[in-house]
Amino acid sequence: MVGLLLLAAAGLWGASGLTWSHVTATTPGTGAVTATEVPVAEAVPSVTALALVALAGVAAAFALGPGPRRVAGVLLVGSGAVAVVGGLSGGADSAWPVLALVAAGIVLAAAGVVLAVVAGRLPAMGARYAAPGAAKEAARGEDDLWQALSEGEDPTAGK
To answer: For residues 115-138, b (16+ Cβ closer than 10 Å) or e, as one string?
Structure first.
């Protein structure tokens, strides 16, 4: 799933630099013809943001609990759909930018489906990532603290 998200992010980011269309304009009075390339990032402005959403999906897969992961998966599916619709919106001079956006959108949506389905089976970040002594210190009661003082230890050391 993480690989799919990274692939989608790379595909969307790469597609943003492709040429969506060529615009030719004639200058009135002089008759000079000017040709301009329109990149995908201008024709479909959401493509760069969608690449960042795909990268945020990687962080969401690791940092969130099962419920929020499912929500993130659904949001990733929706983001993939936005990329597909943007690619199919028309106006492209060639098939390459359309294929790039549609393929990356499908990969992003697939990663979202996988995240939503396996959300409960992925390990959650939690107390095991806390400092080694934090859980033990949190479990100590007031009597333990007085006992530590009686034994010559400083129970507040390291805080």
So the answer is: bbeebeeeeeeeeeeeeeeeeeee
